[in-house]
Amino acid sequence: MTGRTPRLSRLRRVTPEGRAGRSVEARGAKPRRRGAQPKVVALGGGMGLSASLAALRRITGDLTAVVTVADDGGSSGRLRDELGVLPPGDLRKALAALCGDDEWGQTWARVIQHRFQSKGDLHEHAVGNLLIVALWEQLGDHVQALDLVGRLLGAHGRVLPMSAVPLELQALVKGHDPERPDDVDTVRGQATVALTPGEVQSVHLVPNDPPAVPEAVAAVLDADWVVLGPGSWFSSVIPHLLVPELLDALTETKARRVLSLNLAPQPGETDGFSPQRHLEVLGRHAPKLALDVVLADEAAVPDRDLLTDAAKRFGAAVELAPVARTDGSPRHDTELLAAAYDRIFRMHGRIGPWR
């Protein structure tokens, strides 16, 4: 933890009928002693997960990231194709987000994010990707290697892949070919799905029913809070729900579950999506998933009633808070997001304060 206190922010609470006052103890979760830090697991990938981790590390020292491993573009895709390894890019980004704000942490964050610029084979490879893959080859253990990188960086948390098998994301997309706007095609690869000009109908993983990393399942089952999102909806958030053991853990855990919505639709992948539509497609992929809180930026929700109705189908309350940067970009403000999570953990968990 950095010891920094996030700026307080105002959250507007919209609670569906029958949910008010339901404590963690009422759901059977084991109570934690006063002053203990919450065990938090954050799931996702890419910049969305990085934003969540940078915020969460400010309010707990017991933090685990579970990261998607379906990336097939850029440096990660090249290493995956050449060496048959897991794509390391999203794992690297998560580790960088967990680096501290001191000189050591920020130096190492810059180092592992550094990309070589050349006219040769190293062009655009990230230093952290090469380091992670080298340790995988040396140690033969994905989790042990990532833990070792985390120790080197002084990371404020742990990073785990959701599966130890490289995965391919496939999507059914309507209008992927602009010349055939009514046709539905199978689009292969996370990078292609993320940039499709068509409308994504659904996604699935290849191989089907991939095994989850046991440590990731154990972390979800042992958590006090699980945070899903923000991030690329079809390529970073929903894939976690397509790993059967991980979905079972998310369904069975006694932890409370927060879904953090994006600040704006993503061009291509979720172009034109309303906040409630994000929930609808999530429900189609995991109809048995229950949530406790849906967090959204208040300025990104044009119709609060529609979002509240969509959240009710998951059994969730809606929390609206200013969590976006003030520069107009669709990016989260770390301090505001930390304050929102902190307030949710205290208000809904009733087992704080932890700090």
From TrEMBL:
Keywords: Cytoplasm
GO BP annotations, alphabetical order: regulation of cell shape
Pfam families: CofD
Subcellular localization, as worded in the UniProt entry: Cytoplasm
Main location as per UniProt: cytoplasm
A GO MF label: LPPG:FO 2-phospho-L-lactate transferase activity
Compositional bias ranges of the Basic and acidic residues kind: 14-28
Region entry Disordered, spans: 1-36
GO cellular component, one term: cytoplasm
UniProt cross-references to HAMAP family, sorted A to Z: Gluconeogen_factor
Family statement: Belongs to the gluconeogenesis factor family.
Role noted for this protein: Required for morphogenesis under gluconeogenic growth conditions.
Protein name per its UniProtKB record: Putative gluconeogenesis factor
Organism the protein comes from: Streptomyces sp. SID12501
Gene (name only): yvcK
